[in-house]
Design a protein that fits this description.
With 147 residues, the chain is of the alpha+beta class. The protein is built from five helices and six strands. The two termini are 21 Å apart.
């Protein structure tokens, strides 16, 4: 059974951005991806959908395509950020969290943390649920309830 926190520890975010995020997740127009924010084939994880909203609003830019550490292969995903020092292809950047107004009991959430832990007392995050196979619709329900 998850270790729930008290109701005063709920996560908050900008209501208009939340509404657009859950609407986009439920739309059926975005192919769900795993492991990275936004692949060049157009698929996205749930946090990639939020990052693209931030990019569309001008809060961050699509900076290019991520390469492997030795630049020998492309990972085939986009990097988002304000510059090369504040960018990501894997987690939300601080800039996206701030733009969305995401505030948790633990500060900003870069992985979409939910306000409870799993049975092993590890934080439950939206990116992990996405990669475990939760549908966008299920994730949108969690965002609606907890954010």
């Amino acid at each position: 059974m998850p270790n729930f926190v008290d109701e005063e520890a709920l996560i908050t975010m900008d209501p208009a951005i939340k509404a657009q995020w859950v609407s986009d997740l439920r739309s059926g127009d975005i192919e769900q991806g795993r492991a990275v924010l936004h692949r060049t084939d157009g698929s996205m994880c749930c946090l990639g959908v939020l990052t693209k909203l931030a990019s569309d609003a001008g809060a961050v830019k699509k900076l290019g395509i991520e390469n492997s550490a030795d630049n020998s292969t492309k990972i085939d995903c986009f990097r988002y950020g304000v510059d090369e020092n504040n960018e990501s292809y894997f987690f939300l950047t601080n800039t996206v969290s701030e733009w969305a107004g995401i505030i948790t009991p633990h500060g900003m959430s870069l992985s979409g943390r939910l306000p409870f832990n799993d049975k092993h007392d590890r934080p439950v995050t939206l990116d992990a649920l996405n990669d475990l196979g939760f549908s966008f619709s299920q994730i949108a329900d969690l965002i609606d309830f907890w954010y």
